[in-house]
Amino acid sequence: ITDNNNQAAIETMMLSYPVLSAITFIIVGPLCEEMTYRVGLFSFMSKINRAIAFVATSLIFGLIHFDWTVLITNNIDTALLINELLNLPSYIISGLILSFIYEKFGLAASSTAHIFNNLTSSLKRNAEVPFSCFQSLIRTISYQPYQTCRQGKQA
Questions:
Q1: Long-range pairs for 81-86 at CB < 8 Å and ≥24 separation?
Q2: 63 falls in which pLDDT band (50, 70, 90)?
Q3: Residue 106: which region, alpha, beta or left (left: phi > 0; alpha: psi -120 to 50)?
Q4: Residues whose CB falls within 8 Å of the CB of residue 122, separated by 6 or more in sequence, listed in order
Q5: For 108, which of 21, 27, 38, 69 is 20 to 30 Å away at the CA?
Q6: Contact of 22 with 126, CB cutoff 8 Å
């Protein structure tokens, strides 16, 4: 099993736009997904049926990470399709685990778990990209106050 197209696209963007990608894929994306899938969908469906809420939310979470373009093209690449299908269970299981965490411990816990999952996934898959992202982010944040401090001492 290789990375699915979703993960490959994220890694490509992280190389091109490291700081913005790190913020988007490691922090903002998981927070938006937790608000959508856990707070919105899971909470709503739990009022109807708890078991269906777990199943539906996890399936939708998994399917949203599936690369549907492998089915849209005229010449379906069987290897890509099989790879996407082989990666799908890991996303569904992640959705199930995050729903369980949300139900038992709340939004902060599921969001933290989701962010940590994306962070470790990024570190595991391409260690130099996230580290360079965070180094760039730290340099960006610390450069302006440093320059202002330095200018203040010289004045």
A1: 83/1, 83/2, 83/4, 84/4, 84/5, 86/1
A2: very high
A3: left
A4: 10, 14, 22, 25, 26, 129, 130
A5: 21
A6: no
Q: Which two tokens stand for residue 92?
A: 């569904």
pLDDT: which is higher, 112 or 118: 112
Between 112 and 71, where is the model more confident? 112
**Assign residue 126 a region: left if phi > 0, alpha if psi is -120 to 50, beta otherwise?**
beta
The HSE-up count of residue 66 (CA atoms within 13 Å, CB side) is 19
From 31, 8, 9, select the one nearest 116 (Cα to Cα): 31
More confident residue, 149 or 109: 109
Amino acid in position 122:
S
Query: What torsion, rounded to 10 degrees, do the Cα atoms 1, 126, 14, 28 define?
Result: 80
- Return the closest-CA partner of residue 111 out of 9, 36, 52: 36
pLDDT of residue 116 exceeding 80: yes
